[in-house]
Write a structure and sequence with these properties.
By secondary structure, the protein is of the alpha/beta class. Helix content is 44%, strand content 22%. It contains 11 helices and 12 strands.
């Protein structure tokens, strides 16, 4: 199989018209250059250059091979340029994987800031319903970086991002009292806005309610994380949602559950992060908003 070095030597000999000048240009000895050209001829199965007393001439096979040699060298140069761009955070592609709620509540402002600072980097986002699916996808090499809850028994690097807080979304006429928090046990007899089976948030709601001593009865189950607070505000029942997915202008009531419901979030990779992944993790750690100001204001207003 011809090597890039051999192709480079062939092109240099053709362009300079001389083995001697080509050797000087490439800073190699003439015997070394001649050896590599002969090795190339052996690899392709024929003579590429005709050695004349004072010149070098391409053979018919040489004329056929030369365009491909130039193309291969140009492709190699483009490859190196792309690698340099990626290392400098000016180009390339970053593949992210996360769960639906994080993709909805946390990533949009982070991606906006990333796009502003690194417009030449393409982002490919893969979203999953459950953190177990996210971990499996990351293990299978389907992304460069995963963002979710801490994966059990993970051997690669993990970066802690903080603790995500969950809140209760209720209709304005909730009858939940005037306190700043609501005991989950006080909602045991309500019909709930729940999540579809297979959604990781369904497990979280079931576990939180089980700790409060009851099993939530679903009035409706949604596959869309963003729909849960809206359905709760519409009066279908309480919903336990990540604080960061409550929309601006939410016309329901937002309360902290008692006991609190929280989950840690991390970013993780299989091996040491490449420059793009490392830079994105740093931005994510700085800008991830786990409790948006407008939700904090709603909680404070409902506590008064």
């Amino acid at each position: 199989m011809p090597t890039l070095r051999q192709l480079e030597y062939l092109v240099a000999v053709v362009d300079t018209g001389s083995f001697t000048r080509a050797a000087e240009l490439l800073h190699v000895t003439q015997p070394a250059l001649s050896h590599q050209v002969r090795a190339l001829e052996k690899a392709v199965g024929g003579t590429l250059l005709e050695r004349l007393p004072r010149a070098v001439r391409l053979t018919p096979m040489g004329r056929s091979v030369l365009p491909h040699a130039r193309a291969a060298l140009a492709d190699a140069e483009r490859l190196q340029a792309a690698a340099r761009l990626t290392a400098g955070l000016d180009g390339g592609e970053l593949e992210l994987a996360t769960v639906y709620s994080v993709g909805l509540g946390i990533l949009p402002p982070v991606l906006r800031a990333w796009r502003r600072d690194h417009p030449g980097v393409r982002i490919r986002l893969r979203e999953f319903a459950h953190n177990d699916e996210l971990r499996a996808a990351m293990t299978a090499g389907q992304a460069d970086l995963a963002i979710g809850t801490p994966p059990p028994d993970w051997e690669g690097p993990i970066r802690e991002l903080g603790v995500e807080e969950f809140v209760l979304a209720l209709p304005a006429e909730s009858g939940a009292g005037e306190r700043g928090s609501v005991a989950l046990a006080d909602l045991a007899d309500r019909d709930w806005v729940h999540y579809a089976p297979g959604n990781g948030l369904a497990d979280l709601v079931d576990e939180a309610c089980a700790e409060a001593g009851f099993r939530p009865r679903a009035a409706v189950r949604t596959e869309q994380t963003a729909a849960a607070p809206l359905l709760a505000a519409a009066g279908l029942g309480p919903a336990l949602v990540p604080a960061n997915i409550v929309p601006l202008g939410f016309d329901g009531v937002v309360r902290r559950p008692e006991p609190p419901v929280r989950r840690p979030l991390v970013a993780y990779t299989r091996t040491r992060p490449d420059p793009l992944s490392a830079a994105f993790v740093e931005l994510l750690a700085r800008q991830a908003c786990l409790l948006p100001p407008h939700v904090a204001e709603l909680i404070a207003a409902d506590a008064q």
